[in-house]
Structure formats: C-alpha cells, structure tokens
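The freezer alarm interrupted the setup, so I double-checked each line after restarting. Inputs confirmed:
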Amino acid sequence: MASENGCGLCKISVKNIGVKKGSDILLSDVSFELHCGELTAVIGVNGAGKTTLVKSILGEIQHDGTVGFESHHGEKLNKITIGYVPQRLDFDRSAPVSVEDFLLVGRTSSPVCFRRNKKISAQLDEALESVGCLELKKRKLGELSGGELQRVMLVNALYPLPELLILDEPVSGVDAQGSEKFYEAILNLKHNYHMAIAMVSHDLEIVREYADNVILINKTVLKSGAPKEVFESDEFKNVFFTVPEKGALL
Amino acid sequence: MSIVYDFFGTVLPFHWADYKFMINALIAVLLIAPLMGILGTMAVNNKMAFFSDALGHSAFTGIALGVLLGIKNEVISLIAFGVLIALIITRVKNKGNSSSDTVISVFSSTSIAVGLLVLSYGGSFSKYNSYLVGDILSISKNEILCLFVTFAVVIILWAMIYNKLLVISVNRELAASRGIKTGLYENIFVIMVAVVVMMSIKWVGILLINSLLILPAAAARNIAKNSRQYLSLSVAISLVSAVSGLLISFYADTSAGATIVTVSAIIFFITYFIRKK
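Predicted 3D structure, all chains:
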C-alpha cells in the first residue's frame, strides 16, 4: 500500500467558490479541503448546487474563487489528473461502440477499430477485472445495465490514474447489488491507491457507511466534518427534517 | 494511367471494361465509396444526416459563386463555400439551441434559392442540370488524380483523429472532461466531409450525394456490435453498392448515381429487417 500516490498530491483546497447564473446565485463562498486517502461526501437537497460544485472543480464552468492543489511537502501543484464519473451518461444507446472500444480510446493513439496492441489490451483486462467487469469487455456500451455502465465509467475515470476521483451521484437508479459492487470497487481504490475521492450523493445510508468526511451544502457550506458529527448537527436536521409550518402548504 | 487501363482490361474480361469511361468511372467509385463509407459512420453517429443534406444543397451556391467570381474550375468555389457552410452550421448546432434543425433548414433552402437565382439568370440553368443527378461516366484522368490525393489525405487524417471523434460521439462533456478539444476535432471532421462531398458532387449529383454518405453507414449500424464491425461493414456496403450499381447502370442503361443509391437502399432495408429479427 502506498502512503502517497504518483505525484505526491496531498490535498485539494477549494476556496471561496462562487457561481452565478444571470441574477441567480448557485453557489457562494464555498470552501473546504479534500485529502488523499479519504472519501468526502457532498450532500444537500435538490438544487443545493452539488453538481454545480463538481463542474467548478472540473473547470467546466466559470466560477469565482480558486481550486488549489498541494503536494505532500506543502508545494503548490499547477495541475492534477482528475477522474470523473458522471451522474448518468447521456448517450445514444444504439451506437455500435463496445466497452472495449470505449475504454481503449483513451489508452492508445492508433484507431481502436484496427488491430490492438496486446500489452494495452492486457492492461485493460486487468483494469476491468479490478472492478469485477471483465465479462463486459465485448458487450455493446448501450446494452449495459445502469450498474454495469457505472463500473465501466469508473474504469474509464481511472486511466490515467487520477489523484482526485469525482463521483456525481454514481449509482442513482442502480439496483442494490450493482450499487454494492460499485462501492466495493471504490473502497478498494481508496485503500490501494490513496487517492482523494469526492462523491456527491443523495443516499445518506451510503454516505454514513462509506464516507470519511461529509460536507453539507445549500448554496454554501452549512456544516462539514465526520459523518456522525454532521448527521447529528442542527444544520442537518434543518435541511432534511424540517416539517412545513402549519399553513405553509396552503 | 495506361498501365491502370491495361490492368483493368486484363483482369476484367467483360464487355463494359472495353470502354475507357467505364474504367475511369470504376476507379472513381473505388475511391469515393470507401471515403463515403468511412466518413458516414461518424456522420450517422453524430446525427448529422440533415447537416450533410444541407451541405449537399449548398453546392448550388458554391457553383453560382464560382460563376460570379469568374473562377474557371468550379470545384474550388464549391469546396470553399462547402467548408464555410459546414463550419457555420456546426457552430449553430453546438450553440445547443433546440431549433438547430430549423436553422440548418434555413441555410439549406437559402443556398438552393440563391444558387438557382444566379445560375438561372438569363435562362441558362440547363447547362448545370448534370449537377443535379451527376455523371460519373464523364470523369477525366486528372480528376481521378485529384480524387486519389483527397483519398490519401482523408484516410491519414481520419486515422489520426478517429479515437477522439469516437469519444466525442459517445458524449461531448465526457470527451471535454478528458481534455479533448471537442470543437477543434468536430471542425476538422466537417471540413473533411465538406471536401469529400464537394469533390464528388459533380459525379454523384446534388440530389443523391447525401444518400451515398448516410445509407451505407446506417445499414452497417443496424447490425454492427463494435466500432471495427461498424467501419468495415460500412466501407464494404458502400463498395458493393457502388461497384454493382455502376455495372447494373451500364447494362440497364440507367443513371449510375441513382442505381448505386438504390442498391445501398436495398442493403439498408435488408439489414434493418435482420436487426428486427
């Protein structure tokens, strides 16, 4: 087991992130840190800005504030490799693209429709095996079940090996068995590669079971800390268990 | 070139192979068909059938521009205008506006109208009639050489950008998150399509060019399970329909382009029913 990974990244500091869309404020003054070897869950109600936060970290949308990366020895790093598993991949399910095609694309520059390099193919087998889906290799991407597709997306996000892995509601709409297999693979990664993992999730049971840290957001950070600490806080109860006042529904 | 004629004369001891124009036409379709088969796979993946239709129609304005500017070789103005319109339509499409099909249609009909307006000035449109259905039998040696150069360049470029295009066709955001410049690769692709379409439009015809691009790939897609099958089937279907269409047209005395497209349409329906089974 490695104590630090390839480039020696240690933490990711998110400072004062703010996002506006027209006159709507989607996020304001969001700050927190993600550490290697830890799974941090981001929770919040619908529309709290969880996916917006993910997109800001990925650099896909314009935002205020900074996302900084720091090495084990306190040095600043300009760029790190981020692996991303999207919420639900929206794609044309009739496309004749096999799992193998899809995953080889990032690993080789020669066209994947030609003959394959044996070494790369063996590496791919190993990667598929590690998340328990080697048997999916020849299947068409569009024929996979939700859970299978998410594990394939995970394999995709793990090459090149990222320092930070971001999961956006990775198993929403996936059956219990598929979801369990997925999280087993994630725990494996955390232990074996010491990577920082950030996960957006609706499923509080999953968060309680797997997360090391929890960040509760609603446009801004309401509470962060260990799962138990956050789940027992007043902020958490206010967000998830507020009973509408009498007359509020009228 | 005479070596080529001798070669075909020897290996093809048929009546039709006695005619130089048939050998020229055969070489031309052997170059055009694989290109259409290859480019068609991505055009269909990216739902660009309507786009390439509009691109074909823009040839009217391309020719008209050539006439107005006094360019002798209309292929130059055809390609220039085709590339321009391809880039504009792609930009409009990527704006994510739900009415992009309307915008494409506006471009398509405008370029037909403007083209016809200019070309019909003084009642002289009839000399451009051949552009409508094309005439592959009139292709010359130099034009075949041009096609050959295009063939080589497109194949090399294609091999270089294929993987990137494949990820983009699965999901643009995912491709972008992997650091792929989606806009750049998409533009290179549409430029390639525009050049190949415009190089071939004189031989295939404005009315049929889109079918040649879309039908073989659509047929292959019905039965392919992975990208290798998809590409090889598309090229094979394109070649089979092009060569058999050309020969049938010789004996049945029909338009070559129309016969080729009819053959590929038949193949499409066969694969469609195979998939339904």
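Quick read of the result. Residues 9-240 of chain A form a domain with the Rossmann fold fold (CATH 3.40.50.300).
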